[in-house]
Amino acid sequence: MNKIVYLWDADYPWDVRTEKICLALTSAGHEVHIVARNAARKVIEERLPEATVHRMLPWNWMGARIDRQLGFPAFFNPRWVRHLARVVRRVRADLIIARDLPLCPTAIWIGQRAGIPVLFDMAENYPALLQDVWDTRRKRPFDYVVRNPGAARLVEQYCLPRLTRILTVVEESRDRLVRIGVPAERIDVVSNTPSLSRLDFPTSQAAKSTEGPMEVVYLGLMEIARGVGLLVEAADRLRAAQIQVRMRLIGGGRDIALFREQAKRLGLLDREVEFTGFIPSHLDALALVAKANVGAIPHLPNEWANTTIPNKLFDYMAAGLPVLTSDAAPCARIVNQTGTGEVFHAPDVDDLVRAILRLLDPEARAAMRLAGIQAIRERFNWESDTAVLMRAIESTVLEYRQS
Q: What's the rounded Cα separation, in Å, for the pair 227 and 108?
């Protein structure tokens, strides 16, 4: 049994990957602690089924707005250095797991000081994620300092050789690290898969309706680089061709106002295109997803999309939805290998429309539905990824003790 500190750079709860990893570790007998931000000024320490959460101590003598700004997750922020060091020392941690890049150097410094290993949970290609914001011209003045892709690449270069082990979410991310010099034996792939219990949800077993418009659902952030605007434009072209397809877009994000305005301008809003906004309950969002006929992943195939895998791919498959995906490498590979959907060439809206037309066939959708459920049952499930996670934890601690 090890005492493990998981460093999460936002308020907790909630994050699906953080919860899954910490609950798996706790269920295996490890003592798990989550070090988190506290912008909401909640109780400092809270015991949850997956871990004990240690939230940053708020500075009550400041206003809430300034306190939030001064708690921004950056490795050079002394509040985070003190926060992590205090918890590591107090619980006598055996291992730190750093989630994503912004606080990874902080974890390395505290790990070196405490004489314990650091495992990096690389849920995103963070420099490429920031580059998306810059490429779509949606950056803000503050981003030049704290969300600068060039600076993020330098931070990544600093961190990678100083980490004991790295988790990636998909093979393409692992391959990127190998290309830039990380030994393959120091990398494990622990993906964003659902538990097999998801297949027991009543909605995932129900046959999808073939009456009325075919419903295409998107679950995720509303951002330009994620291709949401392509779905709106496709809805306009399908309406013009008198083909009944409805887009349900679930989530919030920095660009949602742009997409709403696009749909309103085209006369689609609340008819062919529905925006639900952010749904706080993940289970409620998944229940809404399961009512659709097709799940969409229209991400533009850039460096970020080509080196990550979204939770929604496996959420769609587990819910029995055929997947409509762009040709971003990981999603296209899995959909093609499993036969669980259609791939289109983004940002080609004509090709997106052609893919949607192919999905109008109920028999084709039924076959894809069964293929997706089978793929979850046999390969893409959290039980399989948990086994990899446990081996990675054991290897990380053992290798460090032997070094």
A: 35
